[in-house]
Design a protein that fits this description.
heterotrimer, A mainly alpha, B alpha+beta, C mainly alpha, A: mainly alpha, Arc Repressor Mutant, subunit A, 12 helices, about 65% helix, about 0% strand, elongated, B: alpha+beta, Immunoglobulin-like, 5-stranded antiparallel beta sheet, 4-stranded antiparallel beta sheet, 9 strands
């Protein structure tokens, strides 16, 4: 059994149910509605955040397929644990930690299976525009990233892919800036070594 | 042998705390190598459009396992909400008993009467009336249909044949459009 | 003499079946079509049945035309067009060299796909994916639905063929139009949306499906930020 929703319908319905760009309900309002029994409203949160962390998951796991599975699982788990979300207005930060746990668990499970093929399957934009050389460099870097520990890779991804500062990362991961820097600097050295081998 | 560790100042360059010009001359080359590394970072966004329905399908599937029959209210922006009941691994003919519950929704401001007519009810405009939902302009009807291909249109006030606004549509052969439902 | 008896018996049985079919058509159209349309559908229906084409789409089109208040001559044209589309679909399916002749359900699916904009070659290409007949039937319906969304026939066929070759379950195939609609809602053209999904399906066909190791272990309750 499954559900298929045909997202069709007129503009008035869009306005009624809330568009994030037009005074849509806050995360807190949606979470409270879902907890009160309006389960279908959960789709609003999924729609709102599924792509925000898709890139993070793809870079962490080395493939967009694995990212899709991880993001899906994380949303299902978040739904199951929604009552534990102490501050519904901070749903997104709470959800990120669930996704992070999922990515780390996946990493532990499949560490020995990370392959060049998986690394090269990460979508890297329009390759025809990017050019073969750039695409090759991206592929090599993603492959090298997969050789880091999950902790090292995460700090690299959050800073250099997601564009967060050390302070923002520290807040998100509940850690200190010096420890993040130590992790990152080890990552730099390891990447240099691996990319040299590659070259 | 080339050392594999970046100089601490080059790491500061990578962290964005120094620029290439801040580095002493002997570290410039190493700095350029480091910047080439960063230039290869792929920041292209990734979209996972299927995740929404996959998540909602998973939740619905589990709920359906607990409840024999439950019709979900309309999801956001849905003009037709389709619930699969026991989707067969091998549709169509083999599983004629597996009916699919379909919810038709039309926003029809000012309408006095709305129905849906199609291949499933012999195109009879009086067979399947929609009823007003919470909002005065929103009309809904729920049907159980067999898996397969169905064509339909809404009939407003008994005379106006209107295709589902954003559902797939094909020529009806009479100069109008029929909406398509593939179950 | 015995062979002659069998032949006569066969002819009588055939005539009885044809008569029953004609009566069935007349009954289904009773009060729902003009007499000339009933006669036309009976004629075309007999021909369709003898050629292995489904009769139901002809009856449906006649009923639809009547319900919509369309003049008889225009209904007749539309019914003839449906017949021609079914015939084209059946020919295309036969040309694909299937082990068994296409059944009427498959031909009806092909006829719909042609109505939606696919050509005979497109139908044959889908049939040649070598998948079971039931999967091809679903594939034809989905390809037609994609075309009805505005996906060009070539892209629609490429996407469905790739999905069929990747061994996707019918449920996944049926989800394709919804996925294309989601992409369109995000600004992609129908062709771009279908092409992107086709690339993903082709990759899946090459590398196998992404691992689904079953439900992962429950995560520890995450700390609240």
């Amino acid at each position: 059994m499954s559900v298929l929703t045909l997202f069709t319908g007129g503009k008035r319905l869009h306005a009624e149910t809330g568009d994030p760009r037009r005074g849509a309900p806050s995360d807190g309002e949606v979470v409270r509605a879902v907890l009160a029994g309006d389960r279908e409203r959960y789709a609003v949160l999924v729609e709102r955040y599924r792509d925000r962390y898709a890139r993070y998951a793809a870079r962490m796991l080395g493939s967009s397929d694995a990212a899709e599975d991880a993001v899906q699982d994380a949303f299902v788990r978040a739904y199951d644990q929604l009552a534990q979300c102490q501050d519904p207005n901070k749903f997104v930060g709470w959800f990120f930690l669930i996704l992070r746990n999922r990515c780390f668990a996946e990493q532990r499970k499949s560490r020995s299976h990370v392959s060049l093929e998986a690394a090269s399957s990460v979508p890297t934009g329009d390759r025809s525009d990017a050019g073969t050389e750039t695409a090759e460099r991206r592929r090599a870097l993603q492959e090298a990233l997969m050789g880091l520990t999950a902790e090292q890779r995460e700090v690299f991804v959050l800073k250099h892919v997601e564009g967060l500062s050390y302070i923002q990362i520290a807040e998100r991961l509940n850690t200190s800036v010096p420890s993040l820097k130590m992790r990152m600097h080890r990552a730099y050295d390891k990447l240099r070594e691996q990319l040299r081998d590659h070259a | 042998m080339t050392k594999s560790e970046f100089d601490p100042q080059v790491k500061q360059l990578l962290d964005g705390e120094l620029t290439l010009a801040d580095l002493p001359a002997e570290l410039r080359q190493e700095g350029e190598e480091a910047l080439r590394l960063l230039a290869a970072v792929d920041r292209e966004p990734l979209s996972l459009p299927a995740v929404t329905w996959r998540v909602m399908a998973t939740l619905e599937r589990r709920r359906q396992r607990r409840l024999t029959w439950l019709l979900a209210p309309a999801l956001a922006a849905a003009a037709a909400l389709v619930l699969w009941f026991g989707r067969p691994a091998n549709p169509p003919a083999a599983a004629s008993s597996a009916m699919v519950t379909v919810r038709f929704v039309l926003v029809a401001p000012g309408a006095h009467q709305v129905s849906v007519a199609g291949t499933f009810n012999r195109w009879d405009p009086s067979a399947t009336p929609l009823v007003r939902s919470g909002s005065a302009d929103v009309w809904v009807a729920t049907l159980s249909l067999p898996p397969g291909q169905h064509q339909y249109a809404f009939v407003v006030d008994g005379v106006r044949w209107v295709p589902d606004p954003t559902a797939p549509a094909i020529d009806d052969g009479f100069g109008r459009r029929n909406s398509v439902l593939t179950l | 003499m015995r062979r002659l008896g069998l032949l006569v018996l066969g002819l009588v049985a055939g005539a009885t079946t044809a008569l029953a079919a004609q009566q069935s058509i007349a009954a289904r159209l009773s009060g729902r079509a003009s007499p000339e349309i009933v006669t036309l559908v009976q004629d075309l229906g007999s021909s369709a049945a003898s050629r292995g084409l489904p009769v139901d789409p002809l009856i449906q089109k006649a009923i639809e035309g009547n319900a919509k208040g369309v003049p008889s001559e225009r209904v007749a044209t539309a019914v003839r067009l449906v017949y021609a589309q079914l015939d084209t679909a059946a020919a295309a399916l036969r040309s694909a060299g299937l082990n068994s002749p296409p059944d009427t359900v498959q031909v009806a699916a092909g006829g719909f796909a042609i109505t939606a904009g696919l050509g005979g070659r497109d139908i044959a290409e889908l049939a040649r994916t070598g998948r079971p007949a039931a999967a091809v039937t679903v594939g034809l319906r989905v390809a037609g639905t994609l075309a009805a969304l505005g996906v060009p026939p070539t892209e629609a066929v490429t996407l469905v063929s790739a999905s069929l070759r990747a061994g996707q379950a019918p449920g996944d195939l049926l989800a394709l139009p919804g996925r294309v609609q989601s992409e369109m809602a995000r600004g992609a053209t129908p062709a771009q949306a279908a092409a992107g999904l086709a690339r993903a399906a082709a990759a899946q066909a090459r590398h196998g499906p992404p691992p689904h190791p079953g439900p992962p272990p429950h995560p520890p309750a995450p700390p609240h930020p």
